[in-house]
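Assemble and predict.
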Amino acid sequence: MPELPEVETIKNDLRPLLAGRVITDVKVAWEGCVDRPLASEFGDQIVGRRMEGVERRGKLLVFTLSGGKTLLVHLRMTGSLLVAEPTAPWGSHTRLSFRLDNGKELRFVNVRKFGRVYLVDDPQEVVGDLGPEPLNEEFGVDDFRALFDNRRGMIKPLLLNQRFLAGLGNIYVDEAMFQARLHPRRKAHTLSPEELAGLYDAIRDVLRQAIADKGTSRSDYVRPDGAEGGHQEHLLVFGRVGKPCPRCGATIERLVVGGRGTYICPRCQE
DNA sequence: CGGGAAACCTGCAGGC
DNA sequence: TGCCTGCAGGTTTCCC
């Protein structure tokens, strides 16, 4: 679920709550969520460290810790990070919890057990293969166009590829492709420079709008205080099969592209 | 490199 | 009410 706008929102919410806090204890309720180091060593390696930075890279949360370690969290489809009182009910899907020196707990909740945490010396070993950040100031339309050199696959799977471009998921790819009036099965190398410029603008517009709305809550996504995002009210095509296209009134269809449920307006997108 | 399918998991909606 | 099937916003891996 969480894509770039959701992770950005979580990062913005967490930073004032976590910056400067010391981790005083760790509870691992399900060892499988610790990708590295060994789950048995995770607590010993992290307890006592101070949270010095809270950042985002792609869909990953990046916590810079004292003593040269970095904690990274990938929420995958159903993960959330909650800041809770230790007395709050544990909940059967809480996989990991960090006790903080202000008495609160940072809890990693994950219904489907896909989310992972990484504690590493060099964050590059986790984020090193990611593509560029679409919202970075220095990421211009020419940089975007250059990504398409020698790419011959369908556009949607390409945009979902995190090594191509970091942060887009199923929802925002569909929304951006609708806004750019492009069919998700179009081959990357058939897009004109003008179409690529339109897609570049659409991706950035969609992401910025969703961040302004604090993300899209359809099923699992909630902010660290339990609040929902608001962008589900502004989705133009995603999940709206059978409803009228907001631009032309044609009926929105659902297809499968690259194995993913895909929503398009069959009249606007070619 | 491209594309499809399966795998990792659990919960929920829909059909009967 | 209960059972069964299919589906889910992410990512990796295997296979052709």
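Chain A has two domains: 4-127, 141-264.
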